[in-house]
Amino acid sequence: MENTDSHAHQGKAEQLDAARPPASPAAAAHAGDGSRQGGGAGGALREHGPQGLYASHEDCALLDAFFQATTAGLGVIDRDMRVVRLNQALADINGIPLEAHLGKTIPELLPEMGNAIVAPLRRVLETGEALSAEVTGRTRASDRPRAWIVNYAPVRSKDGQIVAVGTIVLDITERKQTETKLQEEGETLELLNRAGKVLAAELDLEKLVQAVTDAATRLSGAQFGAFFYNVTNAEGKSYTLYTISGVSRDHFSGFPMPRNTDVFAPTFNGEGVVRLDDVTRDPRYGNNAPYHGMPKGHLPVVSYLAVPVISRSGSVIGGLFFGHPARGVFTERAEKLVVGLAAQAAIAMDNAHLFRRAQHLIQALERSNQELDRFAYVASHDLKAPLRAIANLSQWIEDDLVDQVTPETRQHIALLRSRVVRLEALIDGILRYSRAGRARDKPERVEVRKLLDEVLALLTIPEGASIEIAAGMPTLFTERVPLEQVFLNLIGNALKYADRPDARVEVRGRDLGDLWEFSVKDNGPGIAPQYHQKVWEIFQTLNPRDNVEGTGIGLSIVQKIVLSKGGRAWVESEKGAGATFFFTWPRHESDAAGSVR
């Protein structure tokens, strides 16, 4: 694998002598003056042979031993581009006997690589500067391309003239193959990383499936890839969609969707992976009418790989299919990569389906809430009008029969009016409950102590009752009105159901980090443990309605608001020992409407 020219054809003995190693450039610089014999630098090699470059016989022997012992290919090319010296390592690289090199040119020895080697040789002879070059090609020693790094250095005579070029040839094929594999692995890992990020973040089903198809096609080395998958529309009907990668979609638009043929069935049934070096030679190929193979005009497919995509529930979502016109393209490694990607894709598609379903449910819920708002408004308006009429009629009846009304009748009329008032309160409560936790205001700084003072100003506090607010109440970044509603209901209930003239209510707070825990404690009759959950249900009261005016909606509103903030509400009490109502509230809410941090 060298450039060679030599005019030394003085017999076999002289050729063998020429096969000795060359002097190093340093030694060559001190060699005999070739210009005295043979005219010029080339004469040093022609008249005295390569030994004319040695400083001494001992140097020659030393360098000869090194020349033959090294595993690197070494050679010397004279100015006429002929090989004048080389070692056995270089002869082995070229796959040509050592003696057969001598006096031959590189194009004669290595026709396929001659020009790639001669050009650097000429440059060194012209410039006198050493250089390195990478050469790739075939020699007689290998039928596959190999790669070498060739170092070129000028060999000078004693008077400084360039008489030859010394070369060092190192085989770097394995290193290049390793670098290529590492590069491919790096690209694969990068592709898997990008695909993983897309699969983890993408919730749009169509974009997700296209990303999977693109990534899997590149990973497998396929000419083209397709992902056929089933979807269900809003009406509950199932149909098949597909994505294409590697070629235009036009190549498939004229063909019907694939059926459960003998080749496709294992994939669509989720039975396992099908990998074939030549699908046309598989016994399952061509058994199904009307095409008995690939339809006319279909892209040629020889190598075939198909991987089912199976959901977490075990149902088959679809299948990834890959084709290539060459034989044996899909390796075991490619299969494993695609199988791994298919497993990730199945999870991502499950998530996308869940997200899509959640979006539909959210939209349906929003429509339902809008309808509920309209209903609550209409109901409150339309129901209150006849109630007011009933109250007025009862007053007119009482006025008309003022002299004839018995005490019992007056009691009944008063009871009727109280029922009207209660029904109006119930209607208002239902309206408040329907809106609790849904109407959003912009969060603001709320001093809880100041908020509680405002709440107390809205309540009618019976004479003899007392309310204690503990020190250290926080400042929260939250919506003011919902928190006010919660305190108003809890403190109002504590006073309403105290059932004693010296009612006492204590309001406290406790820092839990991201949350604050608040409590409202009373000294009332208490609540038996079996009713601790029941009190939060709408329309539930533990006292007869005629004894205590109440709708049974207040605590339901409290719980609904607290839950909407990501907190919880509960009660601790024993019969006859008072009750303490607790709830947690976020320290800080985000500015985004409807989202709580």
Summed up, what is this model?
The protein is of the alpha+beta class. It contains 17 helices and 17 strands.
Radius of gyration equals 47 Å
What does the overall shape look like? elongated
Adjacency order of strands in the biggest sheet: 2-1-5-4-3
- Low-confidence runs: 1-54, 544-548, 593-597
Which short descriptors sum up this protein?
disordered N terminus, alpha+beta, 597 residues, 17 strands, five-stranded antiparallel beta sheet, elongated, 17 helices, disordered C terminus, single chain
Describe the overall structure.
The chain has helices at 12-18, 25-29, 41-48, 57-69, 88-94, 98-101, 106-109, 114-127, 173-201, 205-220, 250-253, 265-268, 332-400, 407-435, 448-458, 480-496, 554-564; strands at 73-78, 83-86, 131-139, 142-156, 162-171, 224-232, 238-245, 274-276, 303-310, 316-324, 444-447, 466-469, 475-478, 504-511, 515-522, 569-573, 579-586. The two termini are 72 Å apart. The radius of gyration is 47 Å and the shape is elongated. The strands form four sheets. It has a five-stranded antiparallel beta sheet, sandwiched between helices. A five-stranded antiparallel beta sheet has the order 7-6-10-9-8. Helix 10 runs antiparallel to helix 13 (332-400), helix 13 packs antiparallel against helix 14 (407-435) and helix 15 (448-458) packs across helix 16 (480-496). With 597 residues, it is an alpha+beta fold. It is built from 17 helices and 17 strands. Mean pLDDT is 81; it is low at 1-54, 544-548 and 593-597. The longest helix has 69 residues, at 332-400.
